[in-house]
Structures are given as C-alpha cells and as structure tokens.
Amino acid sequence: MFEYNPEKHYPKETESRVVIRFQDCDPLRHLNNAKYFDYFFNAREDQVPKLYGVEMIDMIQKYKAAWVVYNHNISYVRPARVGEWVRIMSRLLWFNHNTVVLEYYMTDDSKKELKTVLWTTMRYVTIKEGISTDHQGAILDFLKATTENLDISKMTIGERVKMLKMKLLED
C-alpha cells in the first residue's frame, strides 16, 4: 500500500524500454494500432510498483473501488516497427475528486523521435455498485505525490504532440 513520505521524491514519469514483437505487427511491419494500448498499459503496470511501491490490486481491495476507462484519445505520429527498441513513458497528467487523465507516449530508443501519444481518462468507481466515488486516503496521497498537474482543460492532444516533440529536441 502507498504511504506518502514528505521526505521522498516521487518521479512524475515512468519509463520502460521494450522491443516491438513480430506477432504484434501488421503486414507492413508496423505495430498494429490496437497493440499500442497493450504496450502502454503493460509498461505502466510494470513500472508503478517499482517506482512507488504500489500494487493497484491492494488499493482496489482496500477501498473497494477502481478506475474505469471512459475515454481514449490517441495520436499516431510515426510507426513503431517490428524488432525496434522503443521507450514508453507514462504519467498522471491531471486529477480531480473522481477522475484521472493518464498520458502515455512512445519514442524511439534514443528518445529523439515521437511515435505515439495516448491520453486515457478514467473515472473512480465503486466495485459493488459501479458508481462514481471520491478519491480518498492512500489513493489521494498517491495522486497528489505523482501527478504532473498540467492544465489540460484547453489543450488538445495535437498541441501536446507538438510540446512533446519540442521537448525531445531540447533533451
């Protein structure tokens, strides 16, 4: 279970290095559009416990609530190709009392070329009733410690793609 420590620095971004698998590609040797979701979700699932000591199943069992996806917004910029090593980054961009927006993005291995950006919006709901509920306790502590808190209310994913491309050029 997550326990907030004010003395500790919590990274805002997770990162994984993975290879694009043959079975996940189309006949043009590009990563199949639907497979980007698997790569993104698996990378985050691997990294969150390592970085933050959080097992989501423990939080779900304790608070009897979980996040459910109600919106994906994805921008395919450049194809990921079979056998290519890529970097997958993810971060919580924003949250309020019952909703979070996660950002995932993929680059080439050198982190110079942006491949894809995904925003996933999720609502926090009770397991039993399936109704919205407020973030509380360790959930709220985790969100406060790890969220970027970017003002995305007036930002499009296209604008975010431009921002990330510029950031990659600067780094």
TrEMBL record:
Its EC number is 3.1.2.-. The keyword GTP-binding does not apply. InterPro entries: HotDog_dom_sf (IPR029069). SUPFAM superfamilies: Thioesterase/thiol ester dehydrase-isomerase. It is an enzyme of class 3 (hydrolase). The keyword Hydrolase applies. One of its GO terms (molecular function) is hydrolase activity. Keywords: Hydrolase. This is Acyl-CoA thioesterase.
